[in-house]
Amino acid sequence: MLTVGLTGGIASGKSIAASAFSALGVPVLNADLVAREVVAPGSPALQQIRERFGAAFITPAGELDRRRMREHVFASTEARRALEAITHPAIRARLVQWRDAQRAPYCVLDVPILVESGMDALVDRILVIDAPRELQVQRLMARDGVGQALAEQMLAAQASREERLARADDVIANAGPPGAVRAAVERLHASYLALADGREQPASGLHLP
User: pTM here?
Assistant: First the structure.
């Protein structure tokens, strides 16, 4: 089965593309949702986080204080790597388990840090949703209610735009309306179905809305 890795920088528009694939009946797994599951109250990963970072990062309800943790790890490379060392193995295991259980012609793993985490090894093809950095900052500030400094730190913690594009098999440029992204996904859907059943040979492609 063909596995497509959907990725892109924060606030690039991955969720629009993921929704469009889902609407076409394609199985899509969001790694961010998996990341929440692996640190659920009572999970081994959450206990490791408590031991490594302290009880201050756990809410009175016994949940991970996501906002506090986000601010902490995006201000410290060492802290971010420590958190990833705890969560990434569990996330990767769940992605593999889900991928191997699919029976559709192809599936999509929606992983924001696909390239940085090494999880690109789990996919056959990489689709990058691309947007100018300045636009990402604006969207992130509006979406998450964070200041520009934190928005810049969050972007800096990911692979650069150039690094992602260098790894891409397909690209959707998202600097316009959401409808243009959905139209590009529909074109890619036909191509991926052809690849999945051997009617088309793998090739790099650039898809612009």
Answer: 0.86
What residues contact residue 205 under an 8 Å CB cut-off, 6+ apart?
Answer: 169, 170, 171, 188, 191
Tens of pLDDT, residue by residue over 65-109, are 999 998 899 888 899 999 999 999 999 999 999 999 999 999 999
In this structure, of 39-53, 144-158, 170-184, the range with the lowest mean pLDDT score is 144-158
Write down all domains in the chain, each with its CATH number in brackets.
1-27+104-209 (3.40.50.300), 32-101 (no CATH)
What are the tokens at 207?
């898809």
Rounded Cα distance, 14 and 109, in Å: 11
Q: Which residues contact 12 (CB under 8 A, 6 or more apart)?
A: 129, 130, 131, 136, 174
Tokens 């390239």, located at residue: 115
In one-letter notation, the amino acid at residue 101 is A
Alpha-carbon Rg for the chain, nearest whole angstrom, is 18
For 133-163, give the DSSP string: HHHHHHHHHHHH---HHHHHHHHHTSPPHHH
